[in-house]
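Input/output pair, single chain:
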Amino acid sequence: MKSIFYLVILFTFASCTSNSQPKTTKPMSTSNKVTKTEEEWKKVLSPEQYQVIRQKGTETPYTGKYYLHKEKGTYVCAACGAELFKSDTKFDAGCGWPSFSDAIDSSRVTYTTDKTHGMIRTEITCTKCGGHLGHVFEDGPKPTGLRYCVNSLSIEFKK
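Output:
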Protein backbone atom coordinates (compact mmCIF):
# COMPACT_ATOMS: atom_id res chain seq x y z
CA MET A 1 0.00 0.00 0.00
CA LYS A 2 2.88 2.33 0.84
CA SER A 3 4.42 1.78 -2.61
CA ILE A 4 1.10 2.71 -4.26
CA PHE A 5 1.07 5.96 -2.26
CA TYR A 6 4.60 6.78 -3.45
CA LEU A 7 3.66 5.98 -7.05
CA VAL A 8 0.70 8.38 -6.79
CA ILE A 9 3.01 11.09 -5.42
CA LEU A 10 5.55 10.49 -8.19
CA PHE A 11 2.83 10.55 -10.86
CA THR A 12 1.45 13.80 -9.42
CA PHE A 13 4.91 15.40 -9.51
CA ALA A 14 5.43 14.21 -13.07
CA SER A 15 2.07 15.63 -14.15
CA CYS A 16 3.03 18.98 -12.68
CA THR A 17 6.30 19.36 -14.58
CA SER A 18 7.44 21.13 -17.68
CA ASN A 19 10.80 21.71 -19.34
CA SER A 20 10.06 25.29 -20.35
CA GLN A 21 11.28 28.36 -18.52
CA PRO A 22 8.98 31.31 -17.74
CA LYS A 23 9.80 34.99 -17.69
CA THR A 24 12.74 36.35 -15.74
CA THR A 25 12.48 38.92 -12.98
CA LYS A 26 13.99 42.21 -12.06
CA PRO A 27 16.03 41.96 -8.85
CA MET A 28 14.46 43.33 -5.69
CA SER A 29 16.34 45.98 -3.75
CA THR A 30 18.57 44.38 -1.10
CA SER A 31 17.25 46.88 1.47
CA ASN A 32 13.85 45.12 1.35
CA LYS A 33 15.25 41.62 1.90
CA VAL A 34 14.61 39.63 5.07
CA THR A 35 17.62 37.74 6.36
CA LYS A 36 17.55 35.39 9.33
CA THR A 37 19.70 32.54 10.52
CA GLU A 38 18.28 29.05 10.18
CA GLU A 39 17.82 28.99 13.98
CA GLU A 40 15.76 32.21 13.76
CA TRP A 41 13.63 30.70 10.97
CA LYS A 42 13.02 27.60 13.12
CA LYS A 43 11.64 29.85 15.86
CA VAL A 44 9.11 31.64 13.61
CA LEU A 45 8.01 28.78 11.34
CA SER A 46 6.24 25.56 12.26
CA PRO A 47 8.34 22.41 11.66
CA GLU A 48 6.22 21.64 8.57
CA GLN A 49 6.65 25.18 7.21
CA TYR A 50 10.38 25.08 7.90
CA GLN A 51 10.73 21.82 5.94
CA VAL A 52 8.91 23.28 2.92
CA ILE A 53 9.99 26.94 3.00
CA ARG A 54 13.61 26.63 4.12
CA GLN A 55 14.49 23.08 3.02
CA LYS A 56 12.61 23.17 -0.31
CA GLY A 57 10.22 20.39 0.59
CA THR A 58 6.66 19.89 -0.60
CA GLU A 59 3.40 19.08 1.06
CA THR A 60 1.37 16.05 0.07
CA PRO A 61 -0.89 16.93 -2.88
CA TYR A 62 -4.58 17.56 -2.18
CA THR A 63 -3.93 18.18 1.53
CA GLY A 64 -2.99 21.86 1.79
CA LYS A 65 -5.39 24.30 3.46
CA TYR A 66 -5.47 26.58 0.40
CA TYR A 67 -5.87 23.93 -2.31
CA LEU A 68 -9.66 24.39 -2.56
CA HIS A 69 -9.78 27.81 -0.87
CA LYS A 70 -12.05 30.28 -2.70
CA GLU A 71 -12.24 33.48 -0.59
CA LYS A 72 -11.32 36.82 -2.13
CA GLY A 73 -8.11 38.42 -0.94
CA THR A 74 -4.34 38.23 -1.14
CA TYR A 75 -1.94 35.36 -0.56
CA VAL A 76 1.27 36.40 1.20
CA CYS A 77 4.53 34.64 1.98
CA ALA A 78 4.09 32.68 5.22
CA ALA A 79 7.68 33.47 6.22
CA CYS A 80 7.89 37.24 5.65
CA GLY A 81 4.43 38.53 4.71
CA ALA A 82 5.33 39.71 1.19
CA GLU A 83 2.22 39.95 -1.00
CA LEU A 84 2.57 37.36 -3.78
CA PHE A 85 -0.74 36.38 -5.40
CA LYS A 86 -4.29 37.76 -5.67
CA SER A 87 -7.26 35.42 -5.33
CA ASP A 88 -8.59 36.45 -8.74
CA THR A 89 -5.59 34.69 -10.34
CA LYS A 90 -6.19 31.43 -8.42
CA PHE A 91 -7.60 28.48 -10.37
CA ASP A 92 -8.07 24.73 -9.99
CA ALA A 93 -5.33 23.10 -12.04
CA GLY A 94 -6.17 19.66 -10.71
CA CYS A 95 -2.56 19.07 -9.63
CA GLY A 96 -3.20 18.99 -5.87
CA TRP A 97 -1.69 22.35 -4.89
CA PRO A 98 -3.01 25.91 -4.98
CA SER A 99 -2.39 27.29 -8.46
CA PHE A 100 -2.20 30.89 -9.68
CA SER A 101 -1.93 32.28 -13.20
CA ASP A 102 0.18 35.29 -12.23
CA ALA A 103 2.12 36.88 -9.39
CA ILE A 104 1.12 40.33 -8.12
CA ASP A 105 4.47 41.60 -9.41
CA SER A 106 7.10 39.44 -11.10
CA SER A 107 9.85 41.04 -8.97
CA ARG A 108 8.32 39.47 -5.84
CA VAL A 109 9.08 35.96 -7.08
CA THR A 110 12.51 34.62 -8.02
CA TYR A 111 12.77 31.92 -10.71
CA THR A 112 15.51 29.27 -10.55
CA THR A 113 16.09 26.13 -12.62
CA ASP A 114 15.48 23.05 -10.47
CA LYS A 115 16.97 19.76 -11.73
CA THR A 116 16.12 17.64 -8.68
CA HIS A 117 14.12 14.40 -8.71
CA GLY A 118 15.10 13.64 -12.32
CA MET A 119 13.06 16.56 -13.69
CA ILE A 120 13.77 20.02 -15.04
CA ARG A 121 11.41 22.55 -13.46
CA THR A 122 11.42 26.20 -12.51
CA GLU A 123 11.44 26.71 -8.76
CA ILE A 124 9.79 29.83 -7.37
CA THR A 125 10.98 31.50 -4.20
CA CYS A 126 9.94 34.63 -2.37
CA THR A 127 12.32 37.38 -3.44
CA LYS A 128 12.05 39.12 -0.07
CA CYS A 129 13.10 36.19 2.15
CA GLY A 130 14.23 33.43 -0.23
CA GLY A 131 11.54 31.04 0.99
CA HIS A 132 10.58 28.14 -1.29
CA LEU A 133 7.04 28.55 -2.66
CA GLY A 134 6.78 25.77 -5.25
CA HIS A 135 7.26 25.71 -9.02
CA VAL A 136 5.93 27.54 -12.08
CA PHE A 137 4.99 25.93 -15.38
CA GLU A 138 3.94 27.23 -18.78
CA ASP A 139 0.70 25.26 -18.98
CA GLY A 140 -1.64 27.69 -17.24
CA PRO A 141 -4.66 29.61 -18.51
CA LYS A 142 -4.58 32.67 -20.73
CA PRO A 143 -3.55 35.44 -20.76
CA THR A 144 -0.27 34.52 -18.98
CA GLY A 145 -0.13 30.82 -19.81
CA LEU A 146 1.56 30.30 -16.43
CA ARG A 147 0.68 28.00 -13.55
CA TYR A 148 2.30 28.89 -10.25
CA CYS A 149 2.00 25.63 -8.28
CA VAL A 150 2.39 26.70 -4.64
CA ASN A 151 2.58 24.87 -1.33
CA SER A 152 -0.16 25.96 1.11
CA LEU A 153 2.48 25.84 3.86
CA SER A 154 4.41 28.58 2.04
CA ILE A 155 1.55 31.09 1.99
CA GLU A 156 -1.01 32.73 4.25
CA PHE A 157 -4.29 34.34 3.22
CA LYS A 158 -5.36 37.94 3.93
CA LYS A 159 -8.96 39.02 3.27
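Residues 2-30 have pLDDT under 50 and may be disordered. The chain has one domain: 2-158.
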